[in-house]
Amino acid sequence: MNSKKFILCIVLFVFIRLLSSDSTFAEGTGSVKLSYKIAESNTSAGTLTMLVKLKVQNTGSTPISGVSAKNIYANNIVITADQINIGNINPGETVTGSDSFTITMNTGSSNQEPPQKEAVWSVEYTDVNGNPVVEEVVLR
Asked: Are 52 and 100 spatial neighbours (Cβ–Cβ below 8 Å)?
């Protein structure tokens, strides 16, 4: 195996391990954090395809209800999800959606770094006072 292929294999391995861990790649100051739970993944001809479920964590101190998420922007990835319904989440709890969807991305050629990838999700829920809340959460 030449050095370029070896480096690409290492980059792919690290990227898959990061995505499959429970680490959250979310930004924002709201009450929710998002991550993906990977059910399976496949790499072929420089393309990584993953079957995933969305995980939503309530980082606030009160319950939230009617939680749903919709992908509104994707950079250098393709997400085959419409609206993901999560339900109710207690403070500190993480709930995994029941619907699976596919994420596909180009992993880059062996002589360059993989392109920066991110997805923006719109998360809607009702707070403890009955007020509707919409947060945009970025996953990288």
From this structure: yes
Supply 73's token pair: 């922007």
Distance CA 40, CA 110 (A): 23
Q: How far is CA 78 from CA 12, 39, 103, 120, in A?
A: 17, 17, 6, 12
Alpha-carbon gap, residue 102 to 81, rounded angstroms: 7
- B/e letters for 43-64, b = 16+ CB within 10 Å, e = fewer, are beeeebebebbbbbbbbbeeeb
- In order along its 140 residues, the chain shows pLDDT tens digits of 554 454 444 444 444 444 444 433 444 458 999 999 999 999 988 899 999 999 999 999 999 999 999 999 999 899 999 899 999 999 999 999 999 999 999 887 666 666 788 999 999 999 999 999 999 999 88
H helices of the chain, in order, are: 3-20
